[in-house]
Amino acid sequence: FKPKIGTGAEVYVFNLTNPQSKPLADEIQSILVSVGFKNRGVKEATYILKDTQVAALLLEVGFINNSTDNNLFDSKFDEIASRIANAILEVAGKQTINNCLTCGQKI
Hints:
alpha+beta, three-stranded mixed β-sheet
């Protein structure tokens, strides 16, 4: 273990050939890179996601022991959350949103 060596973001899918989760994983990874994270790619996580019954992703958004990643995450949190939410909605064929439909809070 060496602090501050790891950096970047990566998205895991159960199977890289899944036609539902792979396009979303690619889109979310692109979002994370566009806000400034190092591109660690889209990868398979067959063990972690093995018992999922639907398309599932695991997002690794920066390294907790890397102050640069933490600062980027903190300073762009709203943008990251909003863009990930809208990517999910777009892939699902739903209208994108900017505010929570329940409480009206900006997302």
